[in-house]
Amino acid sequence: MATKKNFKTTKFDHSELYKKIFTRIGLILLILALLYFCIFNIFSNIDNFWKLIPGNKNQAIATQKEIPLQKPYINNLPDSYNKEKIDIQGITIPNVKVKLFLNSQSIEDTLSDSTGSFNFGQITIQPGINSFYVIVEDNKGKKSDKSNIEEIKFDKEKPPLNIDTPKNGETYKARVRTLKVEGKTELEATVRVNGILASIDFEGRFFTTISPEAGNNEVIIIATDRAGNETKEIVNYSFEEE
Predict the structure, then answer these.
(1) Could you report the per-residue pLDDT of 165-177, keeping only the tens digit for each?
(2) Would you tell me which CATH number, out of the four given (2.60.40.10, 3.30.110.10, 2.60.40.2890, 3.40.50.450), belongs to the domain 73-154?
(3) Helices (H), ranges, the chain
(4) From CA 206, how far away is CA 181, in angstroms rounded?
């Protein structure tokens, strides 16, 4: 009689297999990532490495972008002036040559100090409009852009001053001690009557009111233009209270 063999069926655990596969895949990906970053860093720094070699120094300098010189600045000037010389000052970077231009012509050079300040001192200005600007130049000959442009008018003419009232030698009567002072000067001038600023309109007409004493009086009227030129008039008159 044949003997019947019993075969035991072994159950295969698939979860353990998947776990090992995923673990190995993770390790491979980690190794690849580390290799990528190492290789990337090597090649990204290779250019800097070659720049350290003495023979490639000039090539490294040539690849750098040139930084332009900072544009200088001239301090504000008055728009009108009645003197023949004026100070020209400003600010730039320290220890560079500063070239001054008047009406587009180079007239003088100076050096900025350790703080970047420069001062050309007293510069002679010409009749009419004077247009100033500066540029700076470093020791390699590199030049900056123009600074701000400052224009100044040289004006030595005194402003006109016409007084309508009071008239010299006239006698004025009123119930109260008030008298109107009025006249005309140039536009944008200022007028002071006995030291008090008078009102002035867009046509140059000025007016104010003063308080005269009984008897003889004197009024001093001074017109000053934007350049600082003055015209002075003294009017003597009499006042009687009615």
Answers:
(1) 999 999 999 989 9
(2) 2.60.40.10
(3) 14-44, 46-52, 57-63
(4) 8
